[in-house]
Fold this sequence. Notes:
Layout: E1 21-25, E2 60-61, E3 74-75, E4 78-80, E5 95-103, E6 119-130, H1 163-173, H2 184-192, E7 216-222, H3 228-234, E8 241-245, H4 262-267, E9 271-275, H5 288-292, E10 301-304, E11 316-319, E12 325-328, E13 346-351, E14 361-372, E15 402-404, E16 410-412, E17 421-427, E18 431-434, E19 445-451, H6 457-460, E20 467-469, E21 472-476, E22 480-485, E23 518-520, E24 540-545, H7 554-562, E25 600-607, E26 610-615, E27 628-634
Parallel strand pairs: 4-18, 5-19, 7-12, 19-22, 21-27
Antiparallel strand pairs: 1-5, 2-3, 5-13, 6-7, 6-14, 8-9, 10-11, 14-17, 14-18, 15-16, 19-20, 22-25, 23-26, 24-25, 26-27
Amino acid sequence: xxxxxxxxxxxxxxxxxxxxxxxxxxxxxxxxxxxxxxxxxxxxxxxxxxxxxxxxxxxxxxxxxxxxxxxxxxxxxxxxxxxxxxxxxxxxxxxxxxxxxxxxxxxxxxxxxxxxxxxxxxxxxxxxxxxxxxxxxxxxxxxxxxxxxxxxxxxxxxxxxxxxxxxxxxxxxxxxxxxxxxxxxxxxxxxxxxxxxxxxxxxxxxxxxxxxxxxxxxxxxxxxxxxxxxxxxxxxxxxxxxxxxxxxxxxxxxxxxxxxxxxxxxxxxxxxxxxxxxxxxxxxxxxxxxxxxxxxxxxxxxxxxxxxxxxxxxxxxxxxxxxxxxxxxxxxxxxxxxxxxxxxxxxxxxxxxxxxxxxxxxxxxxxxxxxxxxxxxxxxxxxxxxxxxxxxxxxxxxxxxxxxxxxxxxxxxxxxxxxxxxxxxxxxxxxxxxxxxxxxxxxxxxxxxxxxxxxxxxxxxxxxxxxxxxxxxxxxxxxxxxxxxxxxxxxxxxxxxxxxxxxxxxxxxxxxxxxxxxxxxxxxxxxxxxxxxxxxxxxxxxxxxxxxxxxxxxxxxxxxxxxxxxxxxxxxxxxxxxxxxxxxxxxxxxxxxxxxxxxxxxxxxxxxxxxxxxxxxxxxxxxxxxxxxxxxxxx
Length: 635
């Protein structure tokens, strides 16, 4: 298989063609960065999505201005990790992020009551590393980049290159201004390693790559729940996978080997090593006995070789991952990028991980969407069944074949074999997973975010218009909610319009996303409740807020939410020494939020029992562009 020029390793046994899955929460890039056009600039900026060029959301901007070539001015969504919840009951200490997406070709269903037109499953994964002070960091630091160019890649001249030659290739290829997700060594490894010559025609889940991977499996949404035991067992979370390890002759490990099986590896002087995935390393424990006796937070500690080991002769203490969650995929209609059953969005409630180190993590998320047909046995058919005249082998599926339906009555089928088994995906921009503030270790935290971008439904499609997500959030009175959003200052949706209408219809400055929250009495209302008659902010206890104040009045909270953080408080005397951030001292806020920041780190709140409706003043347009939401709190 000829490699594509992006840093992503996909084991496909046939070339994929255009297909469509779009991630909305967290915001999926679909390879966009900060384009002002309706179509993305580079379909392979980060990965090969196989999606429509119009999809995706620009990276968030931290202020009212475009980040341009300064990655430090981009906004990274900041979610609080779960607490050490494994030893607790009733979900205590968990943080929940409701992931939302749309997929075009359908999924879910069953043969008896709700049959689907194709087999399907989805795999949800993430990848994290410790955060660094620099927006870009070192060569291998996860980053969005400030340019839309793909990272360069130069293959090795030969497989006997020295470490110096390998490092020279890397230094010439990697540019700090461009995106990084998989590290350069990972792409090089995928390029060098021989492909499996016999692969099942059913696309195997992304978690099952037959060799180590830097991605961690969150969930498999299977075509059939009966497959879950297999997926859970075979995930790299759950078991080790081997790879061939060669050295440079001085004992230092080569990062890649061409050999993909034990026999060829050993015959050519390599070591066939079992590698393990992990949540985190625990370097404080330096012996197997020390390591395996640990049980902090309810986790299992193992003494093993990590997948990214530099010295494979030395084992390390690793915190073991849980098997991925697995269930049957929810039903969605084929050829319809919309909601699923009962008009609800396709979603998965991700319990965010807890990292015992207490470090902030820099992360990315991806969703992979796999479909195949039943025109052949999906598990017993492989490349040996390709058409071969010499062996008189007939392929079970052929390109646009003729079929005989009677004498002199041949008909031609419209079958593209590129599409009978394929994988496509979307990925988020970089976000942060932060340790919880003191005093919130045992609380459940639900994340309330905003999806969508500027424009009407035709202009933004296959993205979506603005809305709150979850649109209706049900809480218990001891739960917490983290309200936060991000937006871009370059969502102009200008020409080329591609296969849809260009433009960015909406309020305020062209190309800008702006959001806020004000209370309304009823979802049928479109006028906010005056603060003096509101209850939402008066009934909210501030557990944490972006500017760090420990005491925040209900009026200051209301002003902060209504201004997207432009104002910190009403009066300068209440701003905790932050001069110039109050409504009575700061330059007047534009009525359409034009001078407010595009992103808002927000606050973690605890609400009293009640039902609270709210809206965005700038974007709510009553009919199709109605940006409203509800929080329901019960004892």
